[in-house]
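Sample A.
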Amino acid sequence: MALASLVVPSGQVAAQAKTQVQVQVQGQVETQRVERRDPSNLTELRKEAERSAKELEEATKALEKRRAVIAGSEKELKGKLSALQQMEQRLAVMRQPVSQMVELLYEQPIAADSVIPFLSGNADEKTLRALTDVTQIVSVRQQAVEQTSALYKETERLAGEAQELRAGNLLAEAQLAAEVDTLRQRSDKIVKSLTAALVKLGIKIDKVGRAALGCNPLRAATAGDYPNGLIPKAMLCPLQQKGNSLRADATIAFVSLNEAYRQRFGKAICVTDAYRNLAEQQSVYYRRPGFAAVPGRSNHGLGLAVDLCGGVERSGSAEFVWMEKNSKRYGWFHPSWAYSSPFEPWHWEYDPKIDSLL
């Protein structure tokens, strides 16, 4: 019985072995997932920069909208104050006849000798007119007092609204401005981290190591504003492969693809051509008729295409097959036309829409 208790059942051994195998397989799958995700972490940094830029853009629009609301409120307030001023002017006009009647009363005072005859029923026409004037003065004065009181209350209400409105607007604007500034700092920090990662992987940004305009992924769309083949050099980001450059987002995605390729084959992707200016497009077009797009229509001129070598240029090779299976994870693909018309296994293109879905 003691011996039996020391023996592990065969089923338990099998279960333990199965568990170990599952752990190993799971570890391999997890490793593959990490590799597929992005070994250089550039894709996530770029997307984080883009998300940050979008948040910054939305916050800036909210701030501009708030300022427009403030301007509208100030305009409304100005209208109310103008109406208040007009009411003051009307009140001044209304007070004028009252003053005139008071002056008339002073000129024709109702003395005791006038009141007594009135009370005894012996008042003459002059006395009756004077008393009527007094009654009118009292009535108009009472109306003026009531209107003045209402006007002052309206003034106080408008002043309170104005103070509350301005204080609220200033506070909201200050909060939004602070948020925009925070988002801008965050965006700049992410871009700097991305630039540092590019430099670490061999991208020559510039001699002093500062982020070049062309390697800022937030400026990628700006490069698209230029005609095909006429993108300024400063708007392009260099590849690790010396002498070649692309649009910022295409370069960042290609560097990530290159690092995954390096892990698989132990070498960097071989690049023969990337961005081509208009003159270079014309040269290739005349040297290789039928194998180059009409100058001004090539994706090379948009900084969104590369021609590859080192095995990728041979259809069916291990490098080519790997590219077919993995390139889309980084936004790169082999266009359908390049399989037949004409057949160009070396030509690969970047599509931001594919990359945005990853």
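Sample B.
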Amino acid sequence: MPATSSSSASSARDTARQRIAVAAITLPLLAVTACGYGSKAEDEGDKTSPVAQGKAIEGLSEVRIGYFANVTHGTALVGLGDGGLIQKELGGTKVKPQVFNAGPAEIEALNSGAIDIGWIGPSPSINGYTKSGGKSLRIISGSASGGVSLVVNPKKIKSLNDLEGKTIAAPQLGNTQDVALLNYLAEKGYKVDATSGKGDVNIARTDNKVTPIAFKNGDIDGAWVPEPTASKLVADGGKVLLDERELWDDGKFVITNIIVRQEFLEKHPKVVEAVLRGSVNTNAWINENPDEAKKAINSVLDKETGKPLPANVLDPAFKNVEFLDDPLASTLRDEARHAVKAGLLKDPLLDGIYDLGPLNKVLSAAGKPSVDDAGLGAK
């Protein structure tokens, strides 16, 4: 498809991008959260750290764990809080939580040794593992599937055939949703420069906290985003044009993994096992107690963002996410292929990215079936 081109259209897009940039600068919360490489995560310190009780595992006083304040990271939100099952399994080893806004910043923190374990999306995991030559991390569990949608302004976009010339937001260059959007557009025949985001359809890399503002201002025509941002846009008059689950076999694809520094895994395997045991128990509790789980997630989001989600956002956001232990490894391979097609990765390294031995040990002890690494496990 030929790209739409005129000086007035280009000027309008530039103005919209400038307004998005201004919004990103002026939004107060962004001053303390991580948005990309070189930015810092919010160190929650003692403000939200759960209470550690009992004996420290392997003599380790604390374990530093990263995650996002997203519904797709509900396992971490529920399991790491006061009374959470992850902290319960860790006993006297205290969880030190750190909140991130996007995967690249969390990978940077992991590589620098600032965190030990993290909940994160597949694309940053692949990118971080590849850039380190397979030395930075291991994926040790799944956590969630689904929870991503393309939401649009129905006055500007009526169908999937109306995307040409429009501006669609994604959270960050190279993040999981950005890769998915680039791949979808390419499969539909649109040409987009992966780095600049310019082309037949324009991609505006926009922090999830800024996206609802940009949507209300008309600076973007839609967004390919995770929950709860997708449901926030719907509450503001947006329409779900595509649920990403529709693009995957059985409607399942990995949206959140658990990763660990390889050095930490080698030195503290019992701590890692305790975190995984807590994660498995937390997922089971969430699935058995959905109403209570929603309240627990919202309580943590209130602490992290200063504002709880209203029911018309929380309910659909929670419903759109499936919490599970299976990392859905075959879908990670597909997402790596999508990143290559988009031009964001040249030769992704996947061999050895998983170590599911500790997880399968936990699952076996709980009477649950083991999970598969799709041939990508560490030898």
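B remarks: The longest helix spans residues 7-26. The first strand starts at residue 42 and ends at 43.
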